[in-house]
Design goal:
The chain is mainly α. It has a single domain, classed as Phosphate transport system protein phou homolog 2, domain 2 (Methane Monooxygenase Hydroxylase, Chain G, domain 1, Up-down Bundle). It has helices spanning about 5-40, 40-70, 75-110, 115-140, 145-170, 175-210, 215-229. The longest helix has about 35 residues, at about 5-40.
Length: about 230
């Protein structure tokens, strides 16, 4: 088989496997949101189980991508795609982990409705951002970065608002049980804020795939958030 044909097949395989990871992570988010809305513990357990599949997919994907990089003399654009895809796979796995952590929280602590509502409100915004970024991965030469950045600003704003509410709750009721309950909730809300950071990391990888340059999107977001505080 001609070298160019082998390279084409390798690149197609990398894209195919990355798309599979995207779909699996999307499914985890859909199931987690459904478990929040329906308060379905069995659905939570399914998400926790399925997380192992994503871990396995990521490990296999990285191994295969590294092997393809090593065995072929790729042109610069293909090399950027292979390396950038490895970075994207890493951030997808971290994103999927957050869905698992939320489900573990629901299974273990069976939180009150207000906690579920708080988490659901930010989770919905996070899902919108994930879908935006997932579409951008599949169509990297479309200009979708601005939408993802705006969603992260929305997540940061929502987190700050909910965090302030929780601080007020603790001020009114400072029993150790209340403090612990709110602390657990804040951890899950903070996890969702981290998802926004992972998704911006994916946006940075997309920029690298297209241009070979790293753009510090996350730094710009942090500066914007601090400016608005």
């Amino acid at each position: 088989m001609a070298v160019n044909k082998i390279l084409d097949n390798d690149i197609k395989q990398i894209k195919k496997e990355l798309n599979l990871m995207i779909e699996k992570t999307k499914e985890q988010f859909r199931l987690t949101f459904a478990s929040l809305v329906e308060k379905d513990i069995e659905l939570c357990k399914l998400v926790i189980e399925k997380d192992l599949e994503i871990n396995k997919l990521q490990n296999e994907f990285i191994k295969q991508a590294q092997w393809k990089i090593a065995k072929q003399h790729m042109v610069a654009s293909d090399l950027r795609l292979a390396i950038g895809s490895i970075m994207i796979a890493r951030d997808l796995e971290r994103t999927a982990d957050v869905a698992k952590h939320i489900c573990q929280y629901l299974v273990k602590y069976k939180p009150e409705n207000i906690a579920v509502e708080y988490i659901s409100s930010i989770f919905e915004t996070t899902m919108k951002m994930f879908n935006e970024v997932a579409t951008h991965i599949e169509n990297p030469f479309e200009n979708r970065k601005t939408e993802a950045v705006q969603q992260q600003l929305n997540i940061a704003k929502a987190f700050d608002e909910l965090y302030n509410k929780l601080v007020e709750n603790v001020a009114k009721d400072n029993r150790s049980e209340t403090i612990l309950t709110n602390f657990r909730m804040v951890r899950r809300l903070r996890d969702l804020e981290h998802v926004g950071e992972y998704l911006l990391g994916i946006e940075e990888s997309i920029v690298f795939i297209k241009s070979g340059k790293f753009e510090e999107i996350q730094k710009a977001i942090i500066e914007e958030v601090n400016l608005n505080k």
